[in-house]
Amino acid sequence: MNILNTLSILAAAPSEATAIWLPVFFWTFALVSVLSSLAVLVVKDIVRCAFLIMSSLSGLAGLYLLLGAEFLAFTQIMVYVGGILILILFGVMLTNREPLLIKRMKATGLVAPGVLAGLILFTAIGYSVCTVDWKVTDQPLPADADTPARIGNALMSDFILPFEMASVLLLVALVGAAMAARRGGAEG
Amino acid sequence: MIFGGTMLSNGLVFARYSLAEWIQGLLGDRLEMIPEWILFPLLMLAGCLVIIGFITVFALFAIWMERKVSAHMQCRLGPMEVGFHGALQTIADGVKLLGKEDIVPRHADKLLHYLAPIIVFAGVFPLFVVVPFSEKILISDINLGLFFVAAVGAVEVVGVIMAGWASNNKWSLFGAMRAATQLVSYEIPLGLAFLTIILLAGSFSMVDIIHQQEGWLSNWFLFHNPFMPIIFLSFFTASLAECKRAPFDLPEAESELVSGFHTEYSGMKFSIFFLAEYAAMYVVCAIAAVMFLGGWSTGIKPLEAWLADSAGNPMREVLSNTVHLVVIVTKSMFLVFVQMWLRWTLPRIRLDQIMHVCLKVLLPWTMVAMVATSAIELCWPGGNMVLTALTIVIWSIPLLWTLKAILDMTVGIFLKFVPSGR
What we know:
By secondary structure, chain A is an all-alpha fold. Chain A has seven helices and no strands. Chain A is globular.
């Protein structure tokens, strides 16, 4: 056995020999993700909730990483942790009047719609998970399974329409935001 | 200088034996007895320890360097007492910080106050995984290197906001808000600069990007076409904002916010913020060196070819790795010096000025340069000597002008005090 080769392979990617660690990582990430999502519901301080969302989203990024979807994992961190979370925190802090923001925990007549929305979402996701024909295989992933080149090619060929639609939507949002800000500035 | 020496000797050890080889040399045949599933986490741990070692040593050196640079720019001497020209001052300060009381404000959010320095450090530490030092001295060359840097780089700001919020101090909160505002401004030019380099190199991997720039100096992406220096300047400016260095040090602004988000931190927690700041300085400079200045490449083609030809010649390999280590660290340290130089030259700018600079100046210029670079890359894939020559000619004018200004200010002033002949 060539130890050097083994070591460099180990350093590059977890192989079969290291598969024993995969459950450890999986459960760590899964527990972090699920427990912090639950805690968001229970914790009263809204800023803490925002930080808990961060740990939940980062746990999800870790799960993507374990699945070999590096690009998705980094995108998750970039978009959610670096972008959306910061905007949430920014919004929470800008609208802050009290020293500590406390969520209202009493039922306010939104219980029924909330439960209904939750049920619909749960059923929809559960239905799609159960009905999709997952292709299970024992083969290792091809080396270029998750390269940005393949994603880029797919986006610019097979999925060009959704891609361009998303760009137009974002452009509209940008222009709209600029307009809204300008009108506010003129009035105030 | 002592620290420089340690760094170099560490580097030599790792140059001779990359981490894996070194471990084998340490354990010999006994390595065979350790099962792979134990080796794997041990290897990861070893990588982490190497990074922590580098960050600590670099911060020790850089803090001393910053104090000396600032002192000499202001005609002072700076620390002179501890060690040769105050070289051991940072160690003394570190010991002092270790002994300080850890104060948590009474009405602070204690949990978040405790976690914030950890998250700030966790936003910088992983970046070292992809920062290369030479062919053999790098932790991992993941094929999404630059994208990883862009993604993880934003985590630090979450820690800063957390620190500002948890301190329950309005100055700290102002600092945190400024950090968030700054982030949404500088991220866009930074991302576009990354995009241009990825476009030129056709790869996200740091090592690939360096290999694309090997050979003569003219192969560096900085000289690819006349628009690249614009992107370099834009990237460097945005990276100053990312490290919260002057003139973009609004989140900590000593004079207005009493050091902003870390006002309420003392002792070790404060020093972790400090460590993370200096580590981030090195990371962005090393990445700028990789992206624009050819990474570890010396820029002399015959020398590079001679160094690369190390088949059956282990000493040549050691030499090659050492030279490359020295080259990339020198390039990065020069950029770190420029960061310090700017800090002690420029006044701090206002928040609206930051947004103006990032969104109305850097963004359009980077956008134009990116589109132009894409067009050039489409017409002449792999670069064009005429364009490179044009770049050097055009950009040598502002460069020479700057050099003349520097010489006037240093040598010129010095000459004034030299008594004339009689």
